[in-house]
Design brief:
The protein is mostly helical and 281 residues long. The protein is 64% helix and 0% strand. The protein contains 15 helices and no strands. The N and C termini lie far apart (122 Å).
Length: 281
Amino acid sequence: MFSFIVLVGIWYALWGKNNPNVSRTVNTPKKKSNIGGIIGFLILLSILGFASRTIAGILLVIGIPVLIIGKIVSAVTNNSNREASPEYKSIPENFKLTETVSKRRKIVKNFNKEYELNLTDEQIERIVDASYFSYYWEREIYDMSKKYNHPVEWYRSDAMWLRAYLKAFPMMNITSDFEMQRRVVEDAFRQIFRELPPGDFMTIDAAIEETNKRFFTLFDEATYMIAFRYMQNKGMKLEFPNSLHHMETEAERLMREYDEKTGANQDPGQGNPDDGQRRGF
């Protein structure tokens, strides 16, 4: 029996701990792992007594080399597929993220707590799972492992739309497919700006306050403007609050001051009121 315990320990060290399905927490009701079957198999062999040690010895001699060779072949194949994928080639910056599931999960959990996001345990698991086949999600976890001088520094990314969504929406939909995630975020932003256009308000702060009240969101000025600009780039016609429409630009201010000094803005028939006094009228 002891030899089987050793075998299971070697199996977990080589493969089990890095497999998302095996390392999944008990509270996440997703995919089933083979842990129960292995435990039952060990119990059965323990009942068999001497036969179990014989079988264990055979599996130790034959199984371990097979596991090692299979892991090497799998690693080489996965690396080749990853490097050939368009998604991998689209990431300009080289980065290295731990391959261990539990460590990736810990990174996301710590960041979720420190930066006051609203990810549930199930959503964290989904992000961790997705990071093994989506380099965009892997990059998100990698950036969560960094330290930032200010919370808003985290938004500086090609995926700032996603990060604004993770911050501002307590009730969110997380999907493992990154392009589908983009559509989810875009639809959420579109619904907000369609029902509460910022141009209907006098200030940005008023628009944010009413949006948060109506949709139970947690927008601040930074996340609101990220969403605003993102939807503008997607072709949605959005205007700033009404009070901003009347704000004078620098060019307009200079032109107005020039007109006031030169009198260019006077009515041609009106003349200068000082002229009559100088002429004796």
